[in-house]
Write a structure and sequence with these properties.
GO terms for molecular function: acetate-CoA ligase activity. Residues 4-62 form the Acetyl-coenzyme A synthetase N-terminal domain. With 80 residues, this protein is α+β, with helices and mostly antiparallel strands. It has helices at 2-13, 15-23, 59-72, and strands spanning 34-39, 48-53. Strands 1-2 form a two-stranded antiparallel sheet. The longest helix has 14 residues, at 59-72. The relative contact order is 0.13. The model has no long low-confidence stretch (mean pLDDT 93).
């Protein structure tokens, strides 16, 4: 439980660092131009949260293809 709590705390106190480490584990076709932006104040305009603006990725590549390239093509990728 200690690891969970430290990760949770880091995600709140240093969201760009925490999530930056997570997203760095994935392949990106197009990198993001802005990592994180938000507005929670209705007086300043519409409420919004934006993550990884302009980034694109390929889910199939991240979940399957790169594991085949790493030599795991003979392993079950998904149980139904």
């Amino acid at each position: 439980m200690g690891l969970y709590r430290s990760m949770y705390t880091k995600s709140l106190e240093q969201p760009e660092k925490f999530w930056g480490e997570i997203v760095s584990q994935f392949h990106w076709e197009t990198p993001y131009t802005k990592f994180f932006s938000f507005n929670f104040n209705i007086k300043e305009g519409p409420i919004y949260i934006k993550w990884l603006e302009n980034a694109t990725t390929n889910i199939c590549y991240n979940l399957l293809d790169r594991n085949v390239k790493l030599g795991h093509g003979d392993k079950i990728a998904f149980y139904w």
